[in-house]
Amino acid sequence: MQLGFSSMVTYSKLDPIALKNSAFNGAHGPMFRWSPIDHVAILSELDLTHFSATQTLTQYGAVGIAQVDWEIVRGLHSMVTGEIYHPAQLDDPQGKHFNNRDWFTLAWFLYPHIDLRSDTYWATEWAPPATRTNSWASLWILHVSL
Question: Cα(47)–Cα(30) distance, rounded to whole angstroms?
C-alpha cells in the first residue's frame, strides 16, 4: 500500500508585455495506491484545485478519481476509471457546474519505453438543464519515451 501527496502549480502569462491576463492554476491533494491481489491495482486521488487570474478573485474546485488496473497478461492492462470534477472557473461563481467522466482503457506495454493505448470515455456536465451536455470520445496513443 502506498500513500502520498501530489502538488502542481502552473503559471501562464497570456500578455507578454504586461502582467494582465496572467493566471495561476494548481491542484493539490492526497493519493492512495493498493494492490489487494497480484495483477490488480487500485488508485485513488482527491485534489483541491484553484484558478486565479490577475486582478480577480481566486476560484476553487475539486477533482477526484478512482481507478482499477488489471494486468490481464504480462504487459496488457485493462483499466476502469471514474472521475468527478468541479472546475475552478471564473464564469461559475455559484459553483453550479459539476462534471463526471467514466473511462475504459486498454494499454499494451510492448517494450520498455514503448506502449500502445486506447482510451474511451463518457462525460456528463451536470450544469443547469439549459446548458447540460453529454459527450464521448475515443482515442489511440502510441507513446515512445527516450
Answer: 7
Edge-first strand listing for the sheet containing 76-86 = 2-13, 22-37, 40-53, 59-73, 76-86, 98-111, 114-126, 133-144
- Which DSSP category does 56 fall into? S
| Cell numbers found for residue 50 | 484553484
Domain ranges of the chain: 2-112
- Whole-model pTM: value is 0.76
pLDDT digits 0-9 by tens, 49-74: 988 876 667 788 899 999 999 999 99
Residue 34: how many CA atoms within 13 Å on its side-chain side? 7
Longest dimension (CA), the chain: 56
Neighbours of 84 (CB within 10 A): 15
Q: What angle do CA 91, 97, 99 make, to 5 degrees?
A: 130
Mean pLDDT of each 10-residue bin along the chain, 146 residues long? 93 65 85 96 94 74 94 96 80 66 94 94 75 85 92
